[in-house]
Amino acid sequence: VPAIFQEIMLFTAGPLILFALAALFWFCVHPRLYRQHVHRHRQQHETRVKQLAQHGKHVHDADAELKRLKRHWAADPKGHRVERFTVTVIIIFFLLQNSVLKKGFALFACAELDPGMYVLVGAMDYTCFSSEHWLYMWTVGVFNLGFYAFGVPLLVLYMLFKRRHRLQDVDMLAKFGFLTMGYEPQYWFYEIVVMARKISVLAVVAFLGRVDVQVQTLLGILIIVAALVAQTHLSPYEARTLDH
Fold it and tell me: For residues 49 and 128, what is the distance between their CA atoms, to the nearest angstrom?
């Protein structure tokens, strides 16, 4: 396997490995730690109730508090674990997005070296559109772009849309604040717009490498200008200095 394909496959699989480790933690390790935490605090509160009972002080209040805590501990935290796992996936994605997508687009970035002869921009000694190149494009490349350029961003947009009326709540800010803070509340989705702009520029560089460089440059400028016009018109940022 050529070195460039090994590197692209590593970058494509890397986040998936981290996602798997996150799933292992939230669905296997965390429940065990949670049960240990619950058991320890339950023993502490039961000891406290017994001590109060021995001294005849506020037994009723302590019993009520213990019952409330038992109901809280007995609640299945699976829903919370799913949400925390999803947030972890989103954070990992945002940290690695640029590097992963650049490698994915690199599979499609070909340049004409001689008339009718195209080579990969990232590996000038490798000829484009060979049977091996097509194989990697339709497997690794399509998965990379389909999952990281469309799948995860759409998942993020869906999660924000479901919670759009509660995104200013303290618990929501703790989970999704890194996506919405800095934007006006009505533009809770604007981070996805910024992401789409970045992906569009990368796509122009990769897919139009075989076209005239002037066309490639023009389209890139048009994308950036369109993004600036939208930003100026909408004024999505809380800090007005960032809107213009």
Answer: 74
